[in-house]
């Protein structure tokens, strides 16, 4: 089925700069505050019981409202939503940096999450509707994928520098120049293609059910980390999430203009992307969390040294995304990039399971980081492109939101699940080795490292599962070539008629 070739926007590469800058701001904000949290807690007198809310308030608002943000972008216009998200994020960051007490800081974090939920899907959907030619799309998503994968590590570096040499408030204030430059550039440069909006009325029941369901799910994993997996509140939240999300699916199958058209997630290729990305982020979050503590507490690195230690991983992600993923995406099938990419990342994680009290950074940690970065960069690049390709332009926002939702939910699950595994392994090791311990402090460190290593072993398995899902579910052909296998396996897509671009999904 031939497709009308859209007019190429001559300013599209300039637009990519400002879209990528906004994405970097959102991604690094997820980790930059982690480094500053101890200082902020001390300065504002936040209790140990409440400090998690600095992270949780953002995660709940961001994760719970992403589908709403994606639908608003489709309805209201992606450029307008993008600039509104940037402006709101800057104001919320200013409020957080100036916070005089705990309540103001938590409110600012929730506002950041709200505006981030508008910003993230509109950024990715702008990219999806701006770059439609296969080779250009590969380059653009290579850059975007590198930023999405490496932004968290950049946040650790920047957070360390700002906290150590200035103060924790600058981890919020630093967002303001990012947002001002990105919003100004977007206003002057970005052109949204005509006819790509979805004028249907907003699905209010879908918004309420999706938001409450995702908030319950994310909060359930947060409570599992602190209260235990079998605690009453934890089980109650998981049960509520299951009921609400099931009701959401039922409502979406009935309403005329659904918040999440089921055709977006019913396609096996996009479903494979969402599932594998969510699992990969579980492993990534576990690595950042445990290696940050390991380097600072066990190896006695400063915050800046800790951030710099992650730089090789960032370099690996950029190389994997722009030099491997982008170059090969137009030549081979996506699953032949994604599955091996996740396996290489799992190999790097496997190396890092061998950490102990006197591990050498150059001999063991550095190779592990490089493999992790190369693998993730190679896998993320085609995943970002495939997740939004093959959908109608009017669904681009919500398809983009699903990418971010899978990553946000994966991050919440990863933090809670792997932290619980590490804590249990630490306690078990300390108990079994207490009798023969030479020093209580030494035993504490040994137990901690054993816990981290155990959790990283689990992360290895999760990354391998992500690779298996990508290889099994994602069967579209390489861009520009027909894929008989994909055509025969995806008969349901043909039944959708005009709802989707025919196979191959990545050929536009």
Overall description:
The chain is mostly helical and 508 residues long. It is 77% helix and 0% strand. It contains 19 helices and no strands. The protein has helices at 12-44, 52-76, 78-97, 102-130, 134-165, 170-173, 175-189, 204-227, 232-252, 262-266, 268-298, 303-309, 311-328, 335-352, 361-388, 396-433, 440-473, 484-489, 491-494. Helix 2 (52-76) packs parallel to helix 4, helix 8 (204-227) packs parallel to helix 16 and helix 14 packs antiparallel against helix 15 (361-388). It is globular. Residues 481-508 are annotated as: Disordered. InterPro entries: EmrB-like, MFS, MFS_dom, MFS_trans_sf, Sugar_transporter_CS.
Topology of this structure?
Layout: H1 12-44, H2 52-76, H3 78-97, H4 102-130, H5 134-165, H6 170-173, H7 175-189, H8 204-227, H9 232-252, H10 262-266, H11 268-298, H12 303-309, H13 311-328, H14 335-352, H15 361-388, H16 396-433, H17 440-473, H18 484-489, H19 491-494
Helix pairs in contact: 1-4, 1-5, 1-7, 2-3, 2-4, 2-8, 2-16, 3-4, 3-7, 4-16, 5-12, 5-13, 5-15, 8-9, 8-16, 11-15, 11-16, 11-17, 13-15, 14-15, 14-17, 16-17
Q: pLDDT under 50 segments (min length 5)?
A: 1-5, 482-508
Mean pLDDT: 82
> How many beta-strand segments?
0
Distance between the termini: 11 Å
Helical residue percent? over 70%
How large a portion of the residues is in β-strands, by DSSP E? under 5%
Q: Order of SSEs, N→C?
A: HHHHHHHHHHHHHHHHHHH
Major beta sheet summary:
none
Looking at the structure, what is the overall shape? Answer: globular
* Tally of individual helices: 19
Structural class: mainly alpha
Output the radius of gyration: 22 Å
